[in-house]
Amino acid sequence: MNLFDLSGRAALVTGGNGGIGLGMAKGLAAAGASVAIAGRNATKAKAALAELGPKAVFVEVEIANPESCREMLRQTVERCGRLDILVNNAGVNDRKRPELYSPDEWHAILEPNLSGAFFAAQAAYPAMKKAGGGKIVNIGSMTSIFGVPFAAPYAASKGGLVQLTKALATAWAADNIQVNAILPGWIDTDLTRRGRQQVEGLHERVVARTPAGRWGAPADFAGIAVFLASSASDFITGAAIPVDGGYSSQG
Question: All domains of the chain, ordered by start, with CATH?
């Protein structure tokens, strides 16, 4: 038996049309899963689908809207036949000092990052329970471990996501649904490239502190996605796993 084989399973990756989400979607597809990627940018999704192969589909969603999340799940089950894996990856950030955020800017980050993951998990629960179990993977951040002066709402949302992961894991364990979080370190994506433009010296500081001596890449998340989505992780739930090249292992 191949513990990492995802043949016959269906996965939904929010924000799966680029960056870490696409890296995970590629890993899930390579392991045999049918993959739906959800987001707002259909043009960007078209390019992602070309990389994912013929079994992949795109579903539009406004992740902070509960009704849109329910429709996302309905379409995924309709097009993929079932739902076994949900990866809550969609998220946004805006870097500035905490005293400079307006209330609207605070909610513009908290709602998609934290509320959106909750709404998507709620929507996925009935399908997973019907299937006899499932896997939910929430994409947190190392900012749930460290304080950062330029991302207060983002850090708050990701810290909340870790606690949400633990709550869902304990609530749904009896339904054979495992819920875990991945905590990415500094990863080379469109989001962090903007960060390097906004925060002077960020690139140099990250490389100097990371034991692996480099920024991470979206492809570094394919393996952990497959592990947490497969039967290899059936007795792991409520965990928050750093994927950061050793960054968080240093005091």
Answer: 10-244 (3.40.50.720)
pLDDT tens digit string along 148-188? Answer: 898 999 999 999 999 999 999 999 999 999 999 999 999 99
Residues annotated catalytic, as ranges: 154
SS (H, E, C) the chain: CCCCCCCCCEEEEECCCCHHHHHHHHHHHHCCCEEEEEECCHHHHHHHHHHHCCCCEEEECCCCCHHHHHHHHHHHHHHHCCCCEEEECCCCCCCCCHHHCCHHHHHHHHHHHHHHHHHHHHHHHHHHHHHCCEEEEEECCHHHCCCCCCCHHHHHHHHHHHHHHHHHHHHHHHHCEEEEEEEECCECCHHHHHHHHHCCCHHHHHHHHCCCCCCECHHHHHHHHHHHHCHHHCCCCCCEEEECCCHHHCC
